[in-house]
Amino acid sequence: MGYTTAQVLKTCWATGPVPLRGHITCGFGAPRGQHQARVASTRSLGSVFDHVGVAVSDLTASERFYRTVLSALGVEPSHADAALVEWEDWAMGPTAHEHPLTRGLHVGFPAPSREAVDAFWRARVAAGYRDDGAPGTRTVYGPDYYGGFLLDPDGHNVALANHNSSAA
Asked: What CATH topology corresponds to 106-162?
C-alpha cells in the first residue's frame, strides 16, 4: 500500500530525519523503518526534487501568502491542516525544536506571460505583501528572464518569472 506525499510529510514533520525505502527521502525524518511504502511522485520538479519542505514561523500567515501566490497560477493546496500545508511537492509546517525556521530561501514560480507577472505583482503589493523587486527584465538570470519579486512572511524571496522573449 502506498502513502500520499502529504501523509509521509505530515508524519515526517512530526518525528525527525531519515531516508525512506524507495525513492524519496523524508527530509524531516522518522524513526528508521517506520515508513515501509514507496511514494509515487508526479515529478512536477523533474528529476531534481521529489519534494520540498519549509519550516515557517507562522503557518497561518505563510499559508495565506502562498495560497494567494499559487492561486494566481491556478494551483490550490492538495492538503492542509494545523500541522502541514501542501501543494503537491511543495509543503510547509511550523517550526519546532527538530525543525528550525528555514532561512535564506529563494523560490521562483513560472508565469504564463509577462502580463501575468505584472498583474500578479501589482495585485500582491496592493494587498500589502512586501515588494522585493518590481517586474522587469533581468538578463543576469538569462536573456529572456522577466520576473517580479515579493517577500513572504519570513522574508524569503519569492519570484514569479516568465522566460518568453516577447515584450510585455
From this structure: 2,3-Dihydroxybiphenyl 1,2-Dioxygenase; domain 1 (3.10.180)
